[in-house]
Predict the 3D structure of the following.
Amino acid sequence: MRVSVIGCGHLGIPHAAAMAELGHEVIGVDVDQAKVERLNAGECPIFEIGLPELLAQHTASGRLRFTTDICAAADFAELHFIGVGTPIDADGRSYDTAQVFGAIRQLAPHLKQACTIVGKSTVTVGTTKQVTALAQRLSPAGESVEVVWNPEFLREGHAVEDTLRPDRLIAGVTTAEGEKAIRAVYAKITDAGVPIFVTDPQTAELAKGAANTFLGLKISYINAVADMCEAAGGDVSQIVDILGIDPRIGAGGMRPGIGYGGGCLPKDVRAFTASARQLGADSAAALLRAAEEINENRTTVALGLITRALGERPIKDSRITVWGAAFKPGTNDVRESPALALCQALQQAGAVVTVHDPQAVATAMVRNPELDYADDLAASLDSAELVVLATEWPEYRQADAHALVDRPANPLLVDCRTTLDPEPWRSAGWTIHQLGRPGK
């Protein structure tokens, strides 16, 4: 098929490259001319595993190209993916869908023949109905323009894998023609056995919010249990194993730490909470708000652990190295990063903070230029009085504790992601503290 992808960011670029990998002819559209030029040169402006290679391969072959001309995309494609951003609104609780409706207003007047618009962005329930009315009103093709809502379930750091081999597809449709189009564009994926759930649009819209909010609830729950372990002297890692063996629960997503971040979970939990209130589901809203409050408090919890690790030394004037700036491993995305929130809190408390990250130093420097940064893992420890692991990159889990023990002024490590096996570090001479786990 000939497809367009409107919006080339963390969602749109991987999706465009994956559609080309599936054999479609793809044109990506973005308003940023400099970004478009980089993409057409095969240069990837974001970090995602496998994406640079896929982008270079398909731009070189001519199967994938990018433009700022939405009219060219309208003339070219028979199916249009909308992958623009839906950040949290000024009220802090709702999605700002201005970019979605802006994309429709720009695209629809150029749609002269029957086609399908496929929404990928995360939106408030009811958006598909509004988008359909707007697109059909503005388009010369009128009611021949179909709208399907097909929310993405990408994990940043795994966006290519999750697009090409997702665990499920959801299509919110109102007509047989819309369902036919979505089945055609994803035929290779569904032929490989991936299930597709064909629903009404409002079910598809709610499903995305429900999925991400459940993940937020799960993370907040195990962090609350970690706090109980801190108070009682219990071991949260053993509780995770005990709970995780129950097939009704599962251990996935149950690693205690400093909370969730990024461009999806924080805004989706907020917006889903707001939707619950708007729908009159007050008990649901109270439950969801409690999960938000637990997550919002994780920086304070981490500061408490760091304070206890320092003992009589105050945070003020302490030289602290933070390992991790991205909100999670596998990406250079620092939006709502718990790691950077902790860095800011440490600096505000008077610490001298140096940050290391395998991929996100450049993006973190743009967001937090006031912090110091190091590109080399070992060098980041020079003169450090305490090291904080804030993002669970494999580079930190696999680091040689013996080789690094002589670099800091004091081999003291606070694992705020509960991701390290503490014994190799302790045997190498480090003092290690972890959230929800007693020292040994």
Q: What stands out?
A: The CA atoms of residues 18 and 164 lie 6 Å apart.
